[in-house]
Amino acid sequence: MFNLFKKLSGVLIIVAVIGMQSCDKDDSILETTETQTELKNAVMNTFYSQSVSVGNGVARAWIKTTKTGDPLEVGIDLSGKALMNLPEEPVQYVLPLPKNKGNHFYNHVLFDWNPAGHEPPGVYDLPHFDFHFYITSIEEREAIPPMNPPYFDPAPDSMYIPANYMELPGLVPAMGAHWVDSTSAELPPILEKFTKTFIWGSHSGEFIFWEPMITREYLMTMPNDTIPIPQPEAYQKDGWYAMDYVITYSTRPEKYTIALVNLEYKQAQ
User: Fold this and answer.
1) Of 177, 202, 254, 258, whose CB is crowded by the most CB atoms within 10 A?
2) pLDDT tens per residue, range 133-175
3) Each residue of 73-96: pLDDT tens digit?
């Protein structure tokens, strides 16, 4: 899988989030109805990134917090038309989360559109999105070098690794090492058609991102899923970790949401 990632890294189009909104794009997810008074009195608030053009629509990342600032959920919304007219070449988007929100734990969302999927053939070679939620800075992520298989990046201690997760060889530049659930239905011996899966990501022995990987075809079914995330015995860093992730579709406004939810504070051990 990651040989192809390495090859793609040189051709991915990096889309910086600098307000790339277009008047002819579907921007329904940008609608807000809360008044300033409602926001001030709310038990929890949602803070949004700037938007970026995706297909015929837009996307933006967000973080939901308690009134005191603790993060509850972190996610990304794709407007209803974002899945239409997607580019025929791989594209990568970077969405910095609002600064000083969520007690500085989640930093940015990096998501890729892979029109031909990627390795291994017969498993992940379907058109899909990779949604990476990073707790490191963009600069730290971009400094991650490429390493080809059979190299394995140093792994976190076993108590930080969820049961059944295994590291894949190689190190994807500006991304990290990828860990897959060996019991996932799309992998041997089951080999069901890939629709969605959940990746953990690390670099230099520390987990730095969490990644729902979802096919366009599956999103088009307008799902409403809440999926438990396997948890490790312990955590490397004080912070808010997701117990579940969601893949949902809503009609008012029309949008797809991919989010890490039910965040719980964990102390490092």
Assistant:
1) 177
2) 999 999 999 999 999 999 999 999 999 999 999 999 999 999 9
3) 999 999 999 999 999 999 999 999
